[in-house]
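Before our next group meeting I need something from you. Please put the record directly below this note.
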Amino acid sequence: MPQPESVQRARRDLGNKLRTLRTNKDFTGKTLAAICGWHPSKVSRIENGQISASADDIRAWTAACGQPGEAPEMIVALETIATMHVEWRELEKNGLAKAQEVVIPLWEETKRYKAYALSYIPGPFQTEDYTRAVLSGIRTRRGLSDEDFETAVAIRAAKQKYLRSGQFRILLEEDVLYTRYAERSVMLNQLTRLIQVADYSSVSLGIIPRDAARGAAHKAHDFWIFDDKTVQVEIVSAFLTLKQQHEVKRYLDDFQHLSELAATYGSAVPLLAKAITAYG
């Protein structure tokens, strides 16, 4: 599938830096390619962001241009690009638990969390049984091994500790409350848990009713925003990490529209109580 704008832009930015090294040396693309032993078109394709350079490519390029000291910083930029768009099969190749661990460093350093959910109750607010049901469905759908399944459940459950150290603004579509991933008793316990955490001083919970007049507040993929600087989005084929300022702003703007819509309908508790009655 086409890669997101943030990946394409970051590749072009890195390509421009490499181009500057080449032109400062008065090399043509063909000259640099010959020195490095590459196909003549490789240089222009890297500079234009059509393909990604490898770490070895960057080392060869900077050395040929007499600037080997530029390589480390560019390789860090390359590694950042590689984490922007990661297919699930790559992320989960070492197991479901390892995939859960990938996001922990970002969670550890974040103080302000925003989340919008169309599909699932967000992780820190899940009961263990709800988490087990959700991850079981993911495991089955993606054909993953079950050998580290309980470890994956425990890792996600451990995210509840961040409710004590961070501030959370959570928005749910009302449909999330009625999307059954487990038996009725599990869903009842999950919704009861939501009522409990909605009372925490660190949590602001809004729910957008099914029949809300949407206006500018369109539905979106489930996403998290960390300290208004990093966005993570789960799409069908991949896990996105977005840091480009203009893209983060789009999600912040959408979150604001969705927040305003939820606020017009007041407290989330009546909608939660209605859903609990439906399961009862």
User: Anything to note?
Assistant: The chain has two domains: 5-85, 94-279. Residues 173 and 256 are 14 Å apart (CA to CA).
